[in-house]
Design a protein that fits this description.
- By secondary structure, this protein is an alpha+beta fold.
- It has two domains: 286 residues, Aminopeptidase; 113 residues, 2-Layer Sandwich (Alpha-Beta Plaits), CATH 3.30.70.360.
- The chain is 34% helix and 26% strand.
- The protein is built from nine helices and 17 strands.
- Helix 1 packs across helix 9, helix 3 crosses helix 9 and helix 7 packs across helix 9.
- The chain binds zinc ion (2 copies).
- The site of one zinc ion has 4 residues, from loops.
- One zinc ion (ZN) binds next to loops.
């Protein structure tokens, strides 16, 4: 991979007494064409987003959404549109008019079990379900990019794959789903993309701006379940039993010491126990306590160490206090890791599109994203798109009932993503 943008060519015609000017290059020409196409598409894209927003669907239940996307992709005239992948997923292919590599764009489609409270004409018509994570926006941008690139197909040197993925928020209990299942069912095969791009709405940034981190961008997420078994006794005679509640209290405190004393303090390590259940009544020593939680890391090495550290800590405390225990760690999403080489190759184009003023700074998120599963197989780049607009009172964070976006972000990022994909195809060498 090499730097992806030809340098501005400054022609200082000083010897003729002219003010130096900037010669347009291939990137500028494409930018002009893409901008014109996106400008025309913007009203229909906003309409498309409103429709998705009004009829949000939960993870692995995105049938209407999937149907709308497939209809649109067929109308746009993509070369292949495969539906029904990992339940409601779609993989579509656009073959450019010139030979070249393959690049993928992924958008997620699912909504959340939240009752929308903001009042706008396109508010959710499905009670208790809402696009509170902006996946309607990601999908709309995916459609926008597909439509834009299809209109300038002859100029595209390579293949673009569009992955519309269900269940990013997690499949319902007992079901497979999300990025892992899409990969299992061939989303990255025939053709295998050389790189994958994705984006996510971010209320910390104003609409029109973006943020890109090199290396870790979002945390891993693994589940944790601890069961402590003690011995029941009369509440007045604790010495006759093993109090699972007191043991649990010590386990909770000891677990928090992993972050402060066992792992590199410069590395993130979130360990949250979200529930604790145990005991039967006031005067009985509890025999059993069950706790479930979540572990978040920004470094796959620390993530690999975490299970042993947790087991050692829980088992050590339980053994010391006479109890027994089980510790289950359920691997979830890996760290969303932006391949630094890909970031370096993309940055010049991003800077030309957004300028330094158009990029906001952000720290890596401790939230997780299953885009990371694609990045484990091929280099991937995932950036955050600003969506806030305080003047329009659009400032709420994702996963809250009054979340919304300033819809100017749709055209801005359709344009940006279209250009980035073309730039990648033009400049990537195997
Ligand atoms: Zn979410
Ligand atoms: Zn999301």
């Amino acid at each position: 991979m090499r730097s992806s943008v030809k340098m501005f060519c400054l022609v200082g015609a000083f010897f003729l007494g002219f003010v130096p000017f900037v010669l347009a290059d291939e990137f500028d020409d494409t930018r002009k064409i893409v901008s014109e196409v996106v400008k025309k598409l913007e009203p229909s894209l906003i309409e498309f987003r409103h429709d998705l927003h009004m009829f949000p669907e939960l993870s692995n239940r995105e049938s209407r959404t999937s149907q709308k996307i497939a209809e649109k992709l067929l109308k746009i005239g993509l070369d292949e549109v495969k539906t029904g992948i990992a339940s409601t997923g779609i993989v579509a292919v656009l073959k450019g008019g010139k030979p070249g590599p393959t690049v993928a764009f992924r958008a997620d489609m699912d909504a959340l079990p939240i009752q929308e409270t903001r009042d706008m004409p396109y508010k959710s018509q499905n009670p208790g379900v809402m696009h509170a994570c902006g996946h309607d926006v990601h999908t709309t941008i995916g459609i926008g990019v597909a439509e834009t690139l299809a209109q300038i197909k002859d100029q595209i040197p390579g293949t673009v794959k569009f992955i519309f993925q269900p269940a990013e928020e997690g499949a319902p209990d007992g079901e497979a789903g999300g990025a892992g299942e899409m990969i299992k069912q061939g989303a990255l095969d025939n053709p295998r993309p050389d790189a994958i791009f994705g984006l996510h709405v971010e209320s910390e940034g104003t609409a029109g701006k973006i943020s890109l981190l090199s290396g870790p961008a979002m945390a891993s997420e693994d589940g944790l379940k601890i069961v402590i078994i003690g011995k029941s006794a009369h509440g007045a005679k604790p010495h006759n039993g093993i109090d699972a509640i007191v043991v649990a209290a010590n386990v909770i405190n000891a677990l928090q010491m992993i972050r402060s004393r066992r792992t590199d303090p410069r590395e993130a390590f979130v360990l949250t126990l979200g529930t604790i259940h145990g005991g039967a009544r006031a005067n009985i020593i509890a025999e059993r306590v069950e706790m479930v939680g979540t572990i978040r890391n920004l470094n796959e090495n620390i993530r690999r160490e975490a299970p042993d550290l947790i087991r050692q800590t829980v088992e050590g405390v339980c053994t010391g206090l006479g109890a027994t225990c089980t510790v289950e760690i359920d691997p979830g999403y890996p760290v969303t890791y932006n391949n630094p080489e890909l970031v370096d190759a993309t940055m010049p184009a991003l800077k030309r599109i957004f300028g330094t003023q158009g990029m906001f700074r952000i720290l890596p998120h401790t939230g997780a994203e299953d885009f990371s599963k694609y990045q484990q197989i091929i280099p991937g780049l995932f950036f955050f798109i600003g969506i806030a607009n305080p003047e329009k009172k659009i400032t709420s964070a994702i996963h809250t009932p009054d979340f919304d976006v300033d819809e100017s972000c749709i055209a801005v990022n359709t344009r940006a993503m279209s250009l980035l994909l073309i730039d990648y195809l033009r400049n990537h060498k195997n």
